Amino acid sequence: MSAVSKVTRTNGSSSSVGETQSAAVSDALRDCGVYIGGKRLPGTYDHFSGLSEVRNFGEGFTWLSLSRPNATQMDAIAELYGLDELTVEDALTNRQRPKIEIHDDHVVFVIRSIHYSPEGLADDENEIIRSGQLMIVIGQEYVITIRMGMPSSDMQRISARVENTTDAIDYGPAGVLWALTDNLVDAYLRIALQLEDRVEIMEDAVFEPNLVSDIEDIYILKREILEMRHAIDPLTPALRSLMNLREDIMPKDVSRYLSDVLDHQLAAADLVAGLDERLSSLIDAAAVKIQLQQNQDMRTISAYAAILAVPTALAGIYGMNFDRMPELHWEYGYFIVLAIMFIIVAFLVWLLRRNKWL
Question: Is the pTM of this model over 0.85?
Fold first, then answer.
């Protein structure tokens, strides 16, 4: 039985199927809206009633927002919406690279989200960047967003912005895909600029003469930026493929908007790549600075050892307790030896300071 017939049937069997599927999907469903004529209809919908409402109107689309669906839930949605089995498999797989897949009646687009917490995340203070996954499936009558590892607050904020973007809703599922991607890519650029400020502070610390640099902090930030690169860099070919979809899937105006998104993505990718290179150079510079500091410390220790060697040697000579040591019986022998010690020590201090060992 086709998905269309399941929705359009009006007998008791259709109602039973809808209730069964709704119960299966409800735990993963975070929101479901129906959009007709560029406006969201009032009322509460689920994945079954939303699609049914769209088909009753003969226009518009429904937007399902899912979070970490399991296999049973995705099977129920796939059966109703006619999704390919590969789409179901992708929806259950986390940490995918950004990509686009084109099927007969729907398009799958995967993009990574970036969450930035300057003070560190709650479960790991050293982790300031965490990436999530947003999978967007669009068809003629629906948009399905499936998030994994993406904070619910981020998704709610982005969804609200998309709903308030008139062009996005007017262009239907393709417009929603563009608006979601645009918001995520803008976040890339915004976070990259914040990280640039952080890198500049580290650079100032490394090249500050009297400040000891913590190379571990630099390495941790480089690791976080590397995770960001893994999210941003593979998006370039996916966006280009998305722009070149046939016009019945991706209207020309939306493709033009996606071109602007691509420009922002390339700018963010270049900026993050530059930060990665700067941090690599900074690690080398910090290591050299630490080595130079250690060398300076060794020179200082050696200088003090040389200074102390003089009085130690003289005291050792006159402490050997030989019977015949004429200086021991001189009236001013003690003061003469002290004067010699002082003169030699003063000369060594002057000489070592002149050569910047002290």
Answer: no
